[in-house]
Amino acid sequence: MALLSRITSILTLLEGPQTLGRGRRFWAGFALVVAAASAYPLFADGYDVGNNVYFFNWIFMALGLCLIWGYGGSLSFGQTAFFGIAGYAYGVLTINLGDAYGLTLLALVAAVLISAVCAAILGYFLFFGRISGVFLGIVTLSVTLVMERFISQTAGPEWHIGTARLNGFNGMGAMPSLTIPWPGGPIVLFPDVALYYATLVLLILVYLGLRVLVNSRFGNVIVAIRENPQRAEMLGYDVRKYQLGTFIIGSSLAGLSGVLYTSWGNYITPASMGMTAASLPIVWVAVGGRSDLTTTLFGTLLVLIGFQALTIYGSQYALVVMGALLVLTVLVAPRGIVASAVSLASKRWTRKKAQSGEVS
Amino acid sequence: MPILETRALNKWFGGLHVTGGVDFALETGEMHCLIGPNGAGKSTFFRLILGEHLPTSGQILYNSHDITLTKSYERIRHGISVKFQVPGIFKALNVAQNIQIALQHHVAPAELDHEIDLLLNFLNLKPVARQLAGNLSHGQKQWLEIGMAVGLKPKLLLLDEPTAGMTPDETFATGEMLQALNREGVTVLAVEHDMAFVRQIAHRVTVLHLGKIFAQGTIDEIVANEQVAAIYLGEAHAQ
Ligand SMILES: Nc1ncnc2c1ncn2[C@@H]1O[C@H](COP(=O)(O)OP(=O)(O)OP(=O)(O)O)[C@@H](O)[C@H]1O
Ligand SMILES: [Mg+2]
Hints:
- The complex is a heterodimer of chains A (360) and B (239).
- Chain A folds into 2 domains: 49-273, no CATH class; 278-360, no CATH class.
- Chain A is built from 14 helices and 6 strands.
- Chain A has helices at 2-12, 23-43, 46-71, 79-97, 103-128, 134-152, 193-215, 217-227, 229-233, 239-265, 275-288, 293-311, 315-332, 337-359; strands at residues 160-161, 164-165, 172-173, 179-180, 187-188, 267-268.
- In chain A, the strands form 3 sheets. Chain A has a two-stranded antiparallel sheet. A two-stranded antiparallel ribbon of chain A has the order 3-6.
- In chain A, helix 11 (275-288) packs across helix 12.
- By secondary structure, chain B is an alpha/beta fold.
- Chain B contains 9 helices and 10 strands.
- Chain B starts with a strand and ends with a helix.
- Classes of the chains: A mainly alpha (360), B alpha/beta (239).
- Chains A and B meet through helix 8 and helix 9 of A and helix 2 and helix 3 of B.
- Residues 13, 16, 18, 36, 38-44, 85 of chain B line the site of adenosine-5'-triphosphate.
């Protein structure tokens, strides 16, 4: 009974003042989107479906940045560092341990934990050293670039952990894909329909979990800290602990992206932590609307797909467009393009409703 | 027994001596007003009590415990609460959430909504509960800020100019609310410029001038003190 009421009180946090979307209409829309996403593999080629898992892989990292930056107010350029740490950790672990007995799943958990521990250490110095604002951005970017430099120079054979060679700028490859042990034979999550569904389920769980988190007491406090850290402290909150907690959760989600990406392509390179890679998550999240999970999710998906489409004409060209998009967002819709579109549409809707109310 | 005591408290900002060896004792259950001309160091004194600034020298005791080096949030957890001179509400959060943040550490989850409602009713903010705090009028912001300070259920309530910008009626109502809290055992220390308000609530008054305690006594004693009139009331009248 106590458990039941506990569960319902958690479920009520799925909607709240910190997230867009509430009520029947929203959840009907949500169900529709999930149904469409679930039906997609039925109408598409397995090869394409597997390829398109690529887009899902990044969203975890974007949602993590949305939490740290949009909700918490700390602009971190460190997402790709934790992406890289977890990706490499997954590679090293699975190359050494193999893919039997569900060890790849253990490696996934371990790799995400390793990125969480690294985030805890970096975050401790950042927040307990009272580094904030621009300096937080500078320090996290520096750490990311140092990581890239470090991994890039590990091409020599002396750089190995167990049987896993780091391979420097060539990138590390040939790690096994995530494999689910199953009585009738293990399910290997190659880029195919099974991986698509596994990633989709994970994405839905993370999205809903984050909705609960930001509408919870913890979420209230981190948003309050974004608004006015001094006041939050004077209401009895240890501001630095909350900032650190937010940073660890958000960075671990980047780690999850790193593992999924590495398993998906059986490959990771130091370039995934470079300058370009480090700034792209900022673009996705800013364009979508950083102060909300849903706008971040859709914004990221849209920008990623647009970027992919443009890459056909050359990746440099696509990057210029990304830069322009960021500038345009900052100038025209600082709250994010998706977020602004949503609020515009809902204003229209309420006005229409009000007008039809007058008539009747 | 004093709930709060400062001993030889000094604060320098560079070459500026803003708090000059203040020995101050606030009795438990007292309603005390701190007055003084602009720049006298009243807000700085509050910030020292709250731990937002560390004193250059001296001691701060709370219920006989030395809290001179205690972290701010811990002082709050021990029962000190503040309403700042400039309202520090969370503008992008709605009014109910602002209150919730003040209540959520000491109110059980099951009673939280109910307690938020009670406090909102008390503050006359129920009709705007779902509005963003940033969109409130100045007076409503003041009330919300007071509500957050009160919502912590403090033992010692610090108020920096609680009635600034309020109408005489609102000011009087604020005084009555504070007196009600005081009857429940809350000790109040308020910085105030409004003499009618000081007369309404204060058991004792301390005059701060150039960072030092200049005079202390009942409101009648302070008003009768010609030197105080010269430095403070004189200036106030001149404005
Ligand atoms: N952080 C700071 N750094 C330097 N000087 C400061 C700082 N805070 C306050 N001061 C100075 O200390 C003096 C006292 O300021 P304080 O705000 O404590 O006065 P006050 O009595 O609250 O005045 P008011 O009635 O105008 O609110 C002023 O001269 C102010 O300029
Ligand atoms: Mg002041």
